[in-house]
Amino acid sequence: MRSWHQFRKTMARIRVTKQFTFEMAHALWNYDGPCKNVHGHSYKLFVTVIGTPIDDKQNRKNGMVMDFGDLKKIVEEEIINRFDHAVVICRDAPHHMLKNIEQMFEKYDVMDCQPTCENLVLHFAGRLKKRLPQHLTLYRIRLDETATSFAEWYADDNE
């Protein structure tokens, strides 16, 4: 019978996921539907990293791929604190939409792209990849915009 350590060496890559929620409003300028108007969503964000659990009895994180608290801190700093209860609009929107944005909204973000669910996922992946410890890989990001609509980003699709 194989020992735990032998088994661990052959089957050690593990994915861990943490879920987050935040509220955000956006407007899709030049869009041909009702989402061209400012409107909001209750987003659900799932962040998945992949790695090997730490195998060091002296390490306080022994047995973990990543401490969920550490992942939470990174996601909150890079995404939640910036986008929660913010209004997001594209920098390319007409001048009249951007002219008084700081007077109309206390918390806003002007992005270089249209703030669709798909582009938000790409933006979030870029921000998180820079912050993760080197021994981990960002595996997947899923952003639920509504109960029935979501976008996903997978590292495997982008190699």
Quick overview:
Helices cover 29% and strands 30% of the residues.
Detailed description of the structure:
29% of the residues lie in helices and 30% in strands. The mean pLDDT is 91. It is elongated, with a radius of gyration of 19 Å. It is α/β, with parallel strands linked by helices and 159 residues long. 17% of the residues are buried. Strand 5 and strand 6 form a beta hairpin. The chain starts with a helix and ends in a 5-residue tail after the last strand. Helix 2 crosses helix 5. It has a single domain, classed as Tetrahydropterin Synthase, Chain A (2-Layer Sandwich). Strands 4-3-1-2-5-6 form a 6-stranded mixed sheet.
Keywords, separated by commas or semicolons:
single chain; 159 residues; alpha/beta; Tetrahydropterin Synthase, Chain A; six-stranded mixed sheet; elongated
Question: What is the element layout, followed by pairings?
Answer:
Layout: H1 4-10, E1 14-26, E2 39-51, H2 68-83, E3 86-90, H3 95-98, H4 101-104, E4 108-111, H5 117-131, E5 137-144, E6 150-154
Parallel strand pairs: 1-3, 3-4
Antiparallel strand pairs: 1-2, 2-5, 5-6
Helix pairs in contact: 2-5
